[in-house]
Specification:
- The chain is mainly alpha-helical.
- The chain is 61% helix and 5% strand.
- The strands form two sheets. It has a five-stranded mixed beta sheet with strand order 4-3-5-7-6.
- Helix 4 runs parallel beside helix 7, helix 5 packs antiparallel against helix 6 and helix 14 runs antiparallel to helix 15.
- The longest helix has 29 residues.
Length: 505
């Protein structure tokens, strides 16, 4: 049965099974996405950009509200694509449907790659199911370019595995061009190609001319595309621009050193252990050239993560999907092993055993991940909306770092700081000031910083209280900090004092 989405080799029964996995994955994700009312904190920057593109046709590069005025640099394909749908449907609806639709397509792409490598339908279906319910990917309310990048990346890999067919060559070129304008993490693929070439030379494996030509095209096009968007920052900061100017005090949040146990939970224990086994075995007995490329990508991901060139969460997500694909090889080899043993009669029960084991170890962590996403509460969003309606347009407002985009998007006011650090010259100093304003005991120090950065309002949310272990600001006094908004959890204060004089009410 051939369709625009499924190749000629697939039978009708296969299409039904993989379609069912896709629909189940998408349905569960959408139920959770709409069950939770808002988005993850980092999503609000991208929502703002999509809204601006929908209204003006251009991204918001010169942002007067972020940091009191700054210039943004980012790759815009994801935002333009979403804005096209935003012309027909409200942004909050589109922002929940599209990312989950993109991630759900990983089930189909994973199936196709696994089927290509193993020629085993059942093994490929298990891989698809694993990809659909990876805990690390179950951030159902995340609206970021990474939600498009991951399925595009593996679609590109599938096209590369089929370069001997002309239509797949065209598909590779198109998908790589889109990738290059979606995320700079595309260089992960290029490093994987480099390791693939190196290992091929060491193992004396012949590399097709078409593969070499495609790799060279990819390298030069990627360099050109990144130069086109980031040449100014590249000349200014050199290779350090890779770390996005993240303050040293919190860089460990972007590149954490998680234990093997934590990593295994995030990508699910069974595919993690199976994938490690397959990688270890394949490094010494590489027979399948298609598997050879996947092993190279695992090595490149590990290397770039260790060098802190890729944020840990993205690298773990990429590794998780790769391990899901490798699980197909593990399943096939295990089944063949069982058939050769004295308990060969149990091989018919093996698929059921695997299904139950995967369900037990994956479903609960995936749903738990979705329910524990870091996002503002309904009460907090209400407070930020109150700011938009009641606080002067020119006001600068202090909030948590992760709440900075809520100030600009929901409140439409100037924030003191947010997590878009690129091109901010005094980011270390600002972050130290932000921390002090939530933790200092001294009113004079706080007022001095309020004066320096012209901050006139503070929003103290439950998230801020939890992060800094506060019940209230330690330096607050009624004379200098008037409470102008309060509900059961969130407070907003008007800063009424300066070091020179007290402002009149």
């Amino acid at each position: 049965m051939a369709t625009p989405f499924f190749p000629l080799f697939m039978e009708k029964k296969e299409v039904y099974w993989i379609s069912a996995i896709f629909v189940i994955t998408l349905s569960v994700r959408l139920v959770l996405a709409f069950l939770l009312p808002h988005f993850t904190y980092e999503s609000y920057f991208h929502l703002q950009q999509v809204g601006h593109i929908t209204q003006t046709g251009l991204p918001l590069l010169d942002d007067p509200l972020s940091y009191g005025g700054r210039h943004h640099l980012f790759l815009p394909f994801f935002h333009y694509l979403t804005s096209l749908f935003n012309l027909a449907l409200p942004l909050p609806i589109i922002a929940k449907i599209l990312p989950n639709l993109f991630i759900a397509t990983l089930t189909i792409i994973t199936y196709l790659i696994s089927r290509k490598i193993t020629q085993n339908k059942t093994a490929a279906l298990f891989s698809a199911g694993i990809a659909g319910f990876l805990p690390i990917l179950f951030t159902t309310n995340q609206f970021t370019p990474e939600m498009l990048f991951l399925p595009l990346m593996f679609l590109n890999i599938y096209m590369f595995l089929n370069l001997n067919k002309k239509r797949y060559l065209h598909g590779y070129v198109i998908s790589f061009i889109i990738l290059s304008f979606t995320s700079s993490a595309t260089f992960l693929l290029l490093v994987g190609f480099g390791i693939y070439l190196l290992l091929s030379l060491l193992e004396k494996k012949k590399i097709d001319r078409a593969e070499i030509e495609v790799m060279l095209f990819s390298l030069f096009f990627f360099i050109w595309s990144q130069y086109l968007f980031f040449k100014d920052i590249l000349f200014e900061q050199g290779i350090s621009f890779i770390w996005k100017n993240i303050p040293a005090e919190i860089i460990s949040q972007y590149f954490p050193l998680l234990s093997l146990t934590q990593s295994a939970i995030l990508v699910s224990v069974i595919p993690f252990l199976a994938g490690i086994f397959v990688v270890y075995r394949s490094l010494f007995h590489l027979k399948n050239e298609k598997m050879f490329l996947l092993i190279s990508l695992v090595i490149s991901t590990t290397l770039l993560t260790w060098l802190r060139f890729i944020e840990f969460k993205l690298s773990l997500a990429f590794t998780g999907v790769t391990l899901a694909i490798l699980f197909a090889s593990f399943y096939q080899d295990t089944l063949q092993f069982l058939q050769k043993t004295k308990i060969h009669h149990l091989h018919k029960l093996f698929p059921r055993f695997v299904l139950v084991l995967l369900a037990i170890t994956m479903l609960s962590p995936a749903i738990t991940t979705a329910l524990r996403q870091e996002m503002p509460t309904v009460e907090e969003i209400t407070a930020f909306q109150w700011i938009k309606e009641n606080i002067p347009q020119e006001a600068t407002i202090l909030a948590l770092l992760e709440e900075g985009h809520l100030i600009t998007f929901v409140s439409n006011r100037t924030n003191f700081m947010d997590d878009q650090f690129t091109l901010i010259p005094d980011v270390e100093k600002r972050f130290a000031a932000l921390t002090s304003l939530f933790t200092t005991q001294f009113q004079t120090e706080a007022i001095s910083l309020f004066d320096e950065y012209n901050i006139r309002y503070i929003i103290l949310t439950p998230s801020a209280k939890e992060k800094y272990n506060l019940t209230n600001l330690q330096y607050r006094s009624r004379e200098c900090f008037e409470r102008i908004y309060e509900d059961e959890s969130t407070k907003i204060y008007d800063v009424r004092c300066t070091l020179e004089k007290t402002r009149e009410g």
